[in-house]
Amino acid sequence: MAFWWPLIVLAFAYAICRFLFMLIPPNVPSIEVDASDVMDDRNQIQENSFIYIPPRGRAQQSDTKVQCYEPATMKYLGYFPALTPDEVRDRVAQARKAQKTWEKSSFKQRRQFLRILLKYIIEHQELICEISSRDTGKTMIDASLGEIMTTCEKITWLLSEGERWLKPEYRSSGRAMLHKRSRVEFHPLGVIGAIVSWNYPFHNIFNPMLAAVFSGNSIVIKVSEHASWSGCFYFRIIQSALAAVGAPENLVEIITGFGETGEALVSSVDKIIFVGSPGVGKMIMRNASETLIPVTLELGGKDSFIVCEDADVDHVAQIAVRGVLQSSGQNCAGAERFYVHKDIYSSFVSQVAKIVKSVAAGPPLAGRYDMGAICLQEHSERLQNLVNDALDKGAEIIARGSFGHIGEGAVDQFFPPTVLVNVNHSMKLMQEEAFGPIMPIMKFSTDEEAVKLANDSKYGLGCAVFSGSQRRAREISSQIRCGVVAINDFASTYMCQSLPFGGVKDSGFGRFAGVEGLRACCLVKAVAEDRFWPYIKTKIPKPIQVRIENY
């Protein structure tokens, strides 16, 4: 792809961050975070400088250590302990004690915590992106958009609107209760638990943490075993900011481990937020039912990308390919099913093929590549199996990207962006979440057919609809069973942090972000009291009073 496009994206992201930086009051202190051990290979001790070969064909679930390595190069990064259930319960107990103090904090103190974080993020965005890139294989552009900009947007939204939505909200009392004043209060739940995925390690930690802490809770976050190295560094940023505002030391905890660690967390907290697969989400639900705690589940998706015949083909093709590249094992809401009107099908496919053939994948910090590595071990094999199943059923590959310079030990961590045509819904590729840079394109004849195809999925996270008529695009999107919609754009809804994020069906339920996500961290309490106390108050009429007998 043209080299100027990534430069424009990075320049735009940088400009937005600098603008946000100007909004930070001058009295916000800077924090120091030790990054000497994560900067680059020259600072690594000799025993950590080897190529890591993870065991194939088995999970690490029984291991006592979480091994960390760079997916793009397979260079070893170190390890972290897999915490036992007793250790998890101890961390939760410490967080619960800290929350009792923090729930009495003022919004002024909470806003100062956010401003300190925002200042650090803007001043150190390159470091944050580089660490995310090393731990997950994503490109710096993807990290800048998905880690920095989204997190900064969430912070600025909380600074401007967070207190407003957590203050008591007055409601009408109805005709029969005109003498009453009715309101809804939002109190902290206590200790929030979060089990987050690896695809955006920085934002996935900060997203639940910011909402939980600002609403007066403490939070314990289990980071993915595939992104523990970056998660534990990002924890230092949070610790330093908490210390700067005098917050309790254990208000936020980061824990590492595998399934056993996560199970112990679910059984110990007052609410659980989970980002991951439907299978694990169902296990979370079963475990949460033992203590009857509220659950928010974001379980991935199979987003539809619908292109009507009156759309700008060249423009939409660029957006479509960018959406696929973000799905190179990194994106949380990737476009995975492409439906194009029959009248522009050939021209759209031709344009997409031309773009994809110019895409190069390679180690993201080693060159100017459009796409990075796949984070999960053996995932490229699964992607190829999905492609093979489609080919066996009549699909055809019309374009594939290329590879840059890839080390011999990291070949399996890359998968070329691939465009397929002649696909249909009998293929696994059109039904199972791929989480990879594969672009299957189907044609449709009518808007009704496009809606029917989009709804033929067990997932319901998001969709994107492109048309020269916004009214037509809105009409199509309104009929699709999903929680997130972008009109003439892709994934733009998540950048609007005032909007809730979440899905339906196998994509989960509950919302984070926006008012809905913030209040989901609260005990919602309904309160009714006398409006004119003590002059007008409830009395029981004599005919229905309980008679008191003399004894």
Automatic annotation (TrEMBL):
Keyword Amino-acid biosynthesis: no
Active site feature: 298, 332
Domain Aldehyde dehydrogenase: 61-527
GO molecular function, one term: oxidoreductase activity, acting on the aldehyde or oxo group of donors, NAD or NADP as acceptor
Coiled coil: none
Stretch forming the signal peptide: none
Pfam families noted in UniProt: Aldedh
Record's protein name: Aldehyde dehydrogenase
The keyword Oxidoreductase is annotated on this UniProt entry: yes
GO biological process, one term: aldehyde metabolic process
Stored Gene3D superfamilies: Aldehyde Dehydrogenase, Chain A, domain 1, Aldehyde Dehydrogenase, Chain A, domain 2
InterPro entries (UniProt xref): Ald_DH/histidinol_DH, Ald_DH_C, Ald_DH_CS_CYS, Ald_DH_N, Aldehyde_DH_dom, Aldehyde_DH_NAD(P)
SUPFAM superfamilies found in the cross-reference section: ALDH-like
Sorted UniProt keywords: Oxidoreductase
Protein source organism: Cannabis sativa
Family membership noted in the UniProt record: Belongs to the aldehyde dehydrogenase family.
Origin: domain of life: Eukaryota
